[in-house]
Structure formats: structure tokens, C-alpha cells
TrEMBL record:
InterPro entries per record: HotDog_dom_sf (IPR029069), PTE-AB_protein (IPR052061), Thioestr_dom (IPR006683)
Span of domain Thioesterase: 143-227
Species per Swiss-Prot/TrEMBL record: Ophiocordyceps australis
Alphabetical list of Pfam families matching this protein: 4HBT
PANTHER family in the cross-refs: UPF0644 PROTEIN PB2B4.06
Protein's recorded name: Thioesterase domain-containing protein
Amino acid sequence: MARKATTLSSEAPLPLSIALPKRLLIPMLNITPPDSDNSVYASTLDYFSSVPWCHALLRDTLCDSSTISSTARVTIPFIPGSRNLPLPQCEQFFGSVLATPDTIPHMLGFFRPDDANHALDAQRPITQAYLLFALGTSLSHYNGIVSGGLVAAIFDVAAGALIDLNTNLDKKDNALSNGVCIATSIKINYLRPVVATGCIVLARIWVESAEERKVFARGELTGSKGERLAEAEFYGTSFRNKL
């Protein structure tokens, strides 16, 4: 079964300013926006690291970016902006409504640069990112199953985190970081039920193409044993920060 969002024209009216400040918390790269709460990073990383299959994903995480070698396949975690410095005018859904102990108490993103210079090289975008979501017990739509709409929202926020990551890393001259990239279409195939019983799921987003203002990406949602729960296709358009 597939769900496709209503297409948004690139000519549709938008707020005069749609730019967001840099809010991702990435301690391994010494990226700490003002007023960040570093305890959120530590507690979130500790939470997911205590789960064996999540620990396996994060085991290449290093404590100090200066120790990254040219041959290491390093995992660099980050806290999405909605969980580090949520803004009152946006991201209320994941930053407030779903940031409770029985909904989605923990979210952690991470990415794996190709080499020691990739993360901070302005000319080389990050084209793949992962987000871990701890799903609470109050997300049932029917008989202990998570709503398909929430699965769509998880994909959407994960794709947004990849765009934010490129912006926060000051990537240049790429559709992933030029202005603000807004989803114009999301198609989702639901493969297995996502249970609302306190489980953890992993969203992976990767870019297939990014040219001028157009972005095409894919995503998948998997469970603790690697089972594929859903897959998605994204089409996005970059807008200028000021319209």
C-alpha cells in the first residue's frame, strides 16, 4: 500500500522568511550552537548505546574529532534541531508534542563521512544520514500498531535532518544546502506493521540526485533485526531563505 502526498508547486506562497538558525548539536565536530544543552547529547547517546543493536551501529563513534584517521569509517552522532533548540514557531510536533516519555522520548541522528576530511569539506555534501527513534507506548492507531501517518512524519523529519546536516556543516553550491529544501512529494510503501510497544526504529535517508533546486532521495525504516518496515521516495525543491 502506498501513500502519496499532495504535490506542492514551487510557486506556492511561503512565509517571508523560511530560514532556520543552525541548531544541530554535533560535539564530535565541535559544533555546539549557543544555548545548547550538552546533557541532552550525552543522555541520548547513553540511552541508545545501552541497546545492543543500536550500540553496534554507534560503536565506531569517537570521543574526539582530532582522532579521526583517514582510513577510519567513523560514525558521527548528532542531536536534531527539534531536540536541541526547538523553536516556538516550527517543529512543535517532534520538538514538543512527541517529546514525552510515552511518545518519542529519544531521537539521535548519525552519519558516516567517507574520510577524515569529508565532514567539514564545504564542497562535498553529506548524502546519507540515519535517525534512531525510540517509540513509546502511546502511539497506537489501531490494536498496538503505529499510525501510517506517523511513519510518514518520521520519514519527513529524517529527510529534513539530512538537509539540516548539510546546512549546519556549511556545505556550498548544492541543492541540499542552498536555501531551504521543502518536500514536494513523498511516496511511502508500508511493508510491515510498526508496533507501538516501546520499540526502537532506524530511518535511513540517502540522496539519489541533487541538481540545481531539485532533490530526489529514498529512505527505509528498519527494526531491531534489520527487518524492513517501510520504504519511501522523496522529491524536494530548494527555496531561497528570503522570499
